[in-house]
Design brief:
five-stranded parallel beta sheet; about 290 residues; single chain; alpha/beta
Length: about 290
């Protein structure tokens, strides 16, 4: 298996390349991303001024096309024509991986309809970076930006509060104080980390208990990536096995192992696994 030649072949292949760019520090770009951008006929970007800083740093001369949420539908016909004619086009966002809370999905779906090849050039992601430093469960649900309307925000957080996994959100500095009361209401007993300016000069990680959150006295600078922990069960305050749970266990005891029963009953219930396990042992000893 010759990995090097396979990689070179794909860089030269025509199609749409989804290229991840640094989320802050310009040194975080991959060698493959630089090579792909240099060989692109066009680069689609959100803000040409932001992208030009990166491209100038690495002497990338490919032509830029402004492609943001306000004009991406208008651009579709022209871009698809370029791709069908054999052009190589890269899609980048201002920072991170395109089409994740950024423009891109409309073009990608249009390429799928037109049988145009799409390639991923992986790299920096604020989501993965934030989860990696959180110390929370590696099982996570990425939501993105919160809804604009307050009632929509309330409804969404109520739904998300039942998920037993880490939750990841993007929040602008001007909105962070508005969502803190709702976070406290819906995620009691959990931990939270505010990741600000990841990989930039003023990088900051604020770790708190959700119950202890307070609004910021001054509007912070830079967008936040927020991670809320999975549900934290306090073994000392866990519920006792209900009679219905005990009856279910009695039906399972001769069909499943103690470990299997403990996993099934313990899932999404605030009952300590030790209590379930001990009850299973008690039933087995009685038999």
């Amino acid at each position: 298996m010759i990995i090097k030649s396979q990689s070179l072949r794909k860089v030269n292949e025509n199609g749409l390349y989804i290229v991840s760019t640094p989320i802050g520090n310009l040194k975080d770009i991959t060698l493959r991303a630089i090579e792909t951008l240099r060989k692109s006929d066009f680069i689609l970007c959100e803000d040409t001024r932001v992208s030009k800083n990166l491209l100038d740093r690495y002497e990338i001369k490919s032509k830029l096309i402004s492609n943001h949420k306000f004009n991406e539908k208008k651009n579709i016909v022209k871009i698809i024509e370029y791709l069908k004619s054999g052009k190589t086009i890269s899609l980048i966002s201002d920072a991170g991986t395109p089409s994740i809370s950024d423009p891109g999905s409309i073009l990608i779906n249009e390429c799928v309809k037109n049988d145009i090849k799409i390639f991923s050039i992986p790299g920096p992601s604020a989501v993965a970076s934030a989860v990696s430093v959180s110390g929370f469960s590696e099982k996570f649900f990425f939501y993105g930006f919160f809804p604009e309307k307050k009632q929509s925000l309330i409804n969404e957080l109520e739904k998300l509060s039942v998920l037993d996994s880490s939750l990841v959100f993007f929040v602008s500095p001007r909105k962070v104080n508005k969502i803190i009361p709702e976070l406290k209401k819906n995620f009691k007993g959990r931990k939270i980390i505010f990741c600000r300016e990841i990989s930039k000069l003023y990088e900051e990680y604020i770790r708190k208990e959700v119950d202890d959150l307070e609004i910021f006295e001054e509007e912070p600078k830079g967008e936040f990536t927020i991670v809320v922990s999975e549900k934290i069960v306090d073994e000392n305050t866990s519920q006792k096995l209900s009679e219905s749970d005990k009856n279910i266990i009695k039906k399972m005891i001769n069909k499943l192992s103690t470990k299997e029963i403990t996993t099934i009953i313990g899932h999404n219930k605030n009952v300590s696994k030790k209590e379930i396990y001990n009850y299973c042992l008690k039933l087995k000893n009685e038999n």
